[in-house]
Specification:
The structure is a homotrimer of 216-residue chains.
Chain A lengths: L5 H5 L3 H24 L4 H23 L5 H4 L2 H16 L5 H29 L4 H22 L5 H4 L5 H16 L4 H22 L9
């Protein structure tokens, strides 16, 4: 089904919807925890959580000139965001922050894989060159976190903590580009690309692998 | 006149133009004062003042894919901005900063109300869902200040100072959405929505009401 | 040839291509060095270098609603960026940072002139008013560096170091606007505008001229 829009094919897949919700919640939670650490107020918590969850895809769509945004077309996501923030502010206390963050690593890794894969495929569908599609895929998955850190007045963790994050997305996005060029069916392209990213990210977490920095 | 574009109806209203100018100057002044405190140079002062005054509406228009921007269609606003900055740099001294800031609270509150109302209405006219229109209204009014603080290397005050600001816009924007759904005439929608926001903001300033943060 | 698109005329000019490459490398290097000083990892180095090199023109194109972006149409620039970053990380050591920065001042000044001129002309071609075209020209040349500093958690140098940078672009952009209004041929418009900016910037570097700040 190579000519069908990706979303049509994917709408068949309930697994994907579950992953998407889990991953979006994980992204929102990472914004939420950062906002809590910085002692932001209720408005700040919601804004930073929303920026982290939806910022990457929105930036990609602005750059590709695509409308409507995901969170405009499916505005229920915004209600979900509000609900997550309200629950977290009601029940989450300082001693839960570290365990929550550890628990979120796994849905976050799934999100990194899924959003990289769909972002890259969307860019390819818009006839972008391979390298541009790869950049768009990375942005989709990693730039929510970058915006979160900029707003919270930190150097983006994805650029500075030497832990492989965007680089896993980079490799997975190339898998998408190559398997798309080989005309693999869409479900296989998606599975290979997302799977590669998720696997690399999980390996990176388990092994503590470090990205090279500057040998000064 | 529900089918007329908002701007046509509003252009009849001289009161609105006066409020708009006063509010834009107030927004620009808040950027200016922040820039002065950070000891930026002349270019930085103008840039931060302009970003604060026009950043929120511009971000909304980028997200809604609307062109031309307000400050492109009416480029005299940019000359006004330059004039305000030149006057301020010539006459405003450190001892005037605090009183200026206090004096600006009131036109700033008017701007919060007016820009929230017009921003929400513009999003509704573009067929956005209610919750998205509310977010767009808040952004229009509050994100100029957010961009000001990001550029000045601070955590955005609107997210962190626990004073009700964006939340007043949030409530006012819902008033717009509801009264629009009830098919109230445009002037009434605008007056109710902007009035609610302004009233709440003024109450918040007078009573020192605090937004909840995280109970850590 | 006033009705020909600028790019058609310019594609004849090999000198311009050489300047463009040298200037883009200089912009990327300034991002690279900042990233190195902040001890970012490999991903951060590439991202900040790319943002510095392409951010200004991309922001202009988003505001003017132009697509495709320069780096999408000519995606080889992204490969060049990767190559520059790889070479720099392999060979550049801390003791080279200061001399590299000094050496980069000159291609950077050429880039300031060239990108201001082309940015202003692109905005004029899109029927922007004069003051808006001037702002767009300045943004094209100076906002890559602004984004670099925001991501690296610094107040933008262009706004705070009191050294004339964007102001040189401001003057050069007005030269473009005026000579365009006088219907000078495109090559002359470009040469006068870019030349003015470059000359002012070089004078500013040589004489140590300081921008006025706030007399507090």
């Amino acid at each position: 089904m190579p000519n069908l829009p990706l979303s049509t094919v994917l709408s068949l897949s309930n697994a994907q919807i579950v992953i998407e919700i889990a991953a979006t919640v994980a992204f929102a939670m990472s914004g939420l925890l950062e906002a809590a650490r910085k002692r932001l107020d209720a408005i700040g918590v919601v804004m930073v959580a929303g920026l982290t969850a939806f910022g990457g895809g929105t930036l990609r769509d602005v750059l590709l000139d695509r409308r409507p945004f995901f969170w405009v077309e499916h505005s229920n996501w915004l209600w979900l965001l509000l609900a997550v923030c309200a629950c977290a502010m009601a029940f989450l206390r300082a001693q839960h922050f570290a365990p929550t963050e550890r628990a979120m690593q796994w849905p976050d890794a799934l999100g990194l894989g899924l959003f990289t894969a769909t972002g890259t495929q969307i860019a390819l569908d818009a006839s972008m060159p391979a390298i541009v599609a790869v950049v768009m895929g990375m942005m989709t998955a990693a730039f929510g976190g970058v915006l979160r850190d900029i707003v919270c007045n930190e150097i983006p963790r994805a650029f500075s903590d030497h832990q492989p994050y965007a680089i896993c997305a980079f490799v997975g996005a190339w898998v998408i580009v190559v398997s798309e060029a080989l005309q693999a069916p869409d479900w296989l392209v998606l599975t290979l690309g997302a799977g590669t990213t998720v696997l690399l990210r999980m390996l990176a977490i388990r092994t503590g692998w470090k990205l090279p920095g500057w040998r000064a």
